[in-house]
């Protein structure tokens, strides 16, 4: 399967030569100007020993020879046997399949447990060369912490992308697959270069047309995509419609305990695996936000998931079952019902009831990817069930990729959170990786932030989140500063001044966004439906269960055991005690757990209302600094990326001002308490 890639960028739909640097993302393979370093590479890596001719081997050889030619200026030969200096790849049966060891010992060698390990090693070595790392003392030994490292696409076959902020789907248009092979391959290259090993290619909210992806109508097309991704060590998943026995199979029901439903799924999976023998499995959203599921028939989620698990088990497939299940028709006047409780209430009683090939996918927080919320109490509480932790690359509630927000500091906080479920030191990163409970399957998934825009992510700076997600799921111990530095070097070059300015823009960007939007963990306060822009009461009298309960005296949600919803009791004792008491609750989450008066004094000495005013003014100043720092890059990077990002940052600044003024005005009118600094707040 030989498919040319981006040297011929004109073959990519919607991309032209002016877009080249944006499209290449972190795989720029920029020519290295140091003659000394180029000579070092040429002396050590004149040749590459050819491999076994498989699709992954071909990908390795293509990537290596192309990248070295671009960076160093010579074409390394691919030979049957390296006799002098060159790159040797040796497969070692005792190593794990995705593990590798790069060393310089009688020449540069890659020892790998399998083809995927060799692929990851080559990308790692190319990254090292691009950053002009030393080749003489090479000794890099790595293996991924998380067995499953997944991107979930929310693409629809009409070409739209739910919560998509980077153009239309790269996979579909007009209920058909696009002829987009070159782009699919370049996407697979990007993912493989940071260690992603699985992709689901359609929306978890599966509509009627997408229900047929598992049928003869589309399976040949799905197999074409699988062929391309397979060459980069990436396996395919599909999101399925739980009601497919009715939508596709002509049955009158989808009761998981009925034989005709089980027979439908068995045949469906037989057909899928006939077309795609290494198909990984399916993603299921059931009984959530008006989606069909086993509750319709009085069955549990374990019964629903296990039926699918039995049907796919003969093919060694997996069922990823999302835990985003809650009542989206609740009465806003009922303060005893709490959306944050829902996942734990639904799934904790079922711990141990799921088959070994079922994996529960749990959102990182109990609500819905807010700028600040606590870690879901279900993570770590489930001790006899396979678990995947879910993040969101798509900045649905964080500026929708029109705002620059570096997400890794947030994810690092989550991964390093101590759940306490097995005593002190039970970190989320160890639960996700399978280290804590040794499940059959484990890992991390993220809702993707990609589309068919020429720069992949809409906002060029949002590429850092995709890069960082891959690197962090490969190794959760990596530092967010170091990952940003890597990405900056690979994407914009190694000039120190450029890196410093990018760090000044991106490292504080999450906290900057939080400052000009929602305070102290309250979240939401955003326009319903499309989730962009401030609307403080947008969800306040709504059935979706996302409230702030602001009145003239205070704001926040009482989730304590004594007077509130009791949500705090879902955590292990050490965290439950901390969260339940406003005096010990982390202040950045104070209003998530407690309804507090405006004049409550924080540890800073400021009252809550003054904190709201101050942070919103600070947030705007933070974006002003982002704009100024980017403007200082004019002439140091290509014009297209410079102008594109500047336009987005200026939009972000105007939007931050809107957020500041609307939030401050709202809470001034609610509280009647003036800003002690007498800044402009509209009455």
From TrEMBL:
GO cellular-component term (any): extracellular region
Limits of the Alpha glucuronidase N-terminal domain: 25-124
Keywords on record: Carbohydrate metabolism, Glycosidase, Hydrolase, Polysaccharide degradation, Xylan degradation
EC number: 3.2.1.131
Gene Ontology terms for molecular function: alpha-glucuronidase activity; xylan alpha-1,2-glucuronosidase activity
Catalytic activity: Hydrolysis of (1->2)-alpha-D-(4-O-methyl)glucuronosyl links in the main chain of hardwood xylans
Pfam families: Glyco_hydro_67C, Glyco_hydro_67M, Glyco_hydro_67N
Domain named Glycosyl hydrolase family 67 catalytic: residues: 129-456
Catalytic residues, chain numbering: 289 (proton donor), 368 (proton acceptor), 396 (proton acceptor)
Residues annotated as domain Glycosyl hydrolase family 67 C-terminal: 457-679
Gene3D superfamilies, alphabetized: Alpha-glucuronidase, C-terminal domain, Chitobiase/beta-hexosaminidase domain 2-like, Glycosidases
Keyword presence, Hydrolase: yes
GO BP: xylan catabolic process
Family in the record: Belongs to the glycosyl hydrolase 67 family.
Assembly behavior: Homodimer.
Protein name: Xylan alpha-1,2-glucuronidase
